[in-house]
Amino acid sequence: MKLLFKQRLFSWFDSYDIYHEDGSTAYVVRGELSWGHCLRIFSPDGRCLGLVKERMLTFLPKFELYEGERYLGEIRREFTLFKPWFVLDFNNWEVDGDWTGWDYSVVSGSRTVMQLSKELWNFTDTYVMDIPNPSDALYCLMIVLAIDADKCRH
After folding, report:
1. pLDDT tens, the chain, 154 aa long
2. pTM
3. Residues 6+ apart with CB under 8 A from 107
């Protein structure tokens, strides 16, 4: 399953549309006015599916992840010299980025959960998410939102 993650060009808050390969809407993400990033994920019919919320006053970025109202865990950036590294505290997933910070892989043991690559030469942030298991899509989207929010901090 491939999803296209595209930031809206004109938006006061972080706002994203996530599309299936056929161009249909998979998710809509709306940012909220808050201290730090607060991103709500909606289904195409308007149901709130999840939330990615930045924890403030931390040395390195941390984001809390919620499915509906249920707290899942957090993703946090670790200090590294040459390439981005994020730690998840749920699902036993690991996130590893390349030295450019544009391509990431999410793995669980030897299983690839997601390959993420940034498309260059677009007016807004655009990523392609390659997710072998469609049931992982919401959690993968949360990871991408946290990574993108972290990149916006710099």
Report:
1. 999 987 765 545 567 889 999 999 999 999 876 666 789 999 999 999 999 998 766 666 789 999 999 999 999 877 666 666 688 888 888 888 887 777 899 999 999 999 999 877 666 677 899 999 999 999 999 999 998 887 655 5
2. 0.85
3. 93, 94, 96, 113
Residues 6 or more apart in contact with residue 114 via CB below 8 angstroms: 104, 105, 106, 129, 130, 131, 136, 140, 143
> In a 3-state reduction of DSSP, which class is residue 23?
coil
**What is the distance between the alpha carbons of residues 147 and 86, in angstroms, rounded to a whole number?**
8
